[in-house]
Each structure stands twice: as C-alpha cells, then as structure tokens.
Amino acid sequence: MADEAGGHVPVNRRQWDEHLSAWFDRYAHRRWAAGEPFWGMWCVPQSRLPVLPADVAGASTVELGCGSAYVSAWLAGRGAHPVGVDFSARQLATARHLRDEFELRFPLVHGDAEQVPLADACADLVINEYGAAVWCDPYRWIPEAARLLRPGGRLVFLTHSPLARLCMPEAGPATDRLVQSLFGLHQLVRRGGSGREYRQFALPHGESIRLMAACGLVVEDLIEVQVPPDAATNNNDFPEFPPEWVQRWPAEEVWFARRR
Asked: How far apart are CA 103 and CA 159, in angstroms?
C-alpha cells in the first residue's frame, strides 16, 4: 500500500540538500569523465554489467532521480536526447556545473519523480541508478515511469536487492541473518549521520512484478549483480556491505521492463 500522505518527499529532499549531496559530489566528476559507464557501489563496468541499452542513439530518455546526472551524460555521449529530473536543488546545481564543463546540452528539471512535470509518452527509455528506485515510493514512481514511456519504450533501474534490505539491521553492516520481514516490505526508516530520519523504499520481487504489470510494463530481465573478484573494495564508502557478504549474496539488482 502506498503512503498516501507522501510525507517522505520533503524529508528526503532535505536530507539530500543538507547532507547527502556534499558526500556524493566527490564522485560526480569521475563519473562524468568516464570513457565507459560503470555501475553501482562496486563500479562494475558496462562491459560486465550492460545496464545501458546498446541502441540509444536518437532515443528520448528520462533519468528519474538523476542526482548529478552522470547517467544522462553517458546517454548524451551515445547520441541520446536525455532529460534529467531530480528533487534536490543542490544535486541539480552540481549537474548544471558539470554539464557546462563537459559542454553537453540537455534539460535538467527540478521535480519529483512521483509527479514528473513532463508529457505523457515522451520517452523511449526511463532509467535510474539508485535514484527514484530507492528514494521514491514505487507505487507512485513506477506508474509515472510507465506514463512517460511510449509503447515499446523501456524502463531500466538499478537498486538494492530485497535480500540486502532483509539482512540490514537498523545499525551496523548486513548480517547473515534475516532481520527484517519480507511481508509488508515497502517503506524503510533510515537515520543519517546527522541523526535525522529519512525514508527509502523496496518491494519484494513478486510485488514489483505485479505492480509493473498493472502499469502496462512487461519485465524482460532481472540481473542480481555479482561483484567481480577484482572489483575495488567499498569498505570505506559503503561499510554496510562487507566483502564476505557480497561474495555470497547480491546487494544490488538491475530491472529491465518494456511498455506494452
């Protein structure tokens, strides 16, 4: 069931504008400058984890929860016509600065992925990496993604796996025990370094499939990401997933769906 009040939107926006943006800005330039896209917490290259479709030249794309808009930059570099949407003014300021530095031209829209200020059927591809898929209510953003897609258009998003959520205690790293309930999995209360609470979202696989089907989307693939043995360690930046945990279970997954 969706959170009818939608009170998470201003809470999460404030968390990004006041706290998280400064931390993630450290990674923005490297991602914009990358010759090959790389994905997720372990920076798995596109050649190993093909998140971007190969045929994006000329496609109209929308990145929901674009942050510093590096995915849109990668798409623009491959001949697509992207639009980035994010609710954080500070993240969009970083995106505009980098857009100018790298001399790319595409729109950046200050807006909520649960109520996107774009026209119906305007996109061939809707995509996000840890954007709307984590920070927005799936009962709201997935119908919006479907609304934006033309018939045959694709939805692609990378997010935490439900298993990672189930093994994540309120404090400390993921364990080898299930500490959360699968039934009713939806909205998760988290607490940042500032001590302020914010919200993240996840659904069980079955509920995600049913939700997308109800929105006219057909799931075509689901990749449960296996961290390559030679991947750089993430202990300093993402200590919640120790190396011994991700060697056994997927912390991340990529969904691929198509609009009927």
From this structure: 29
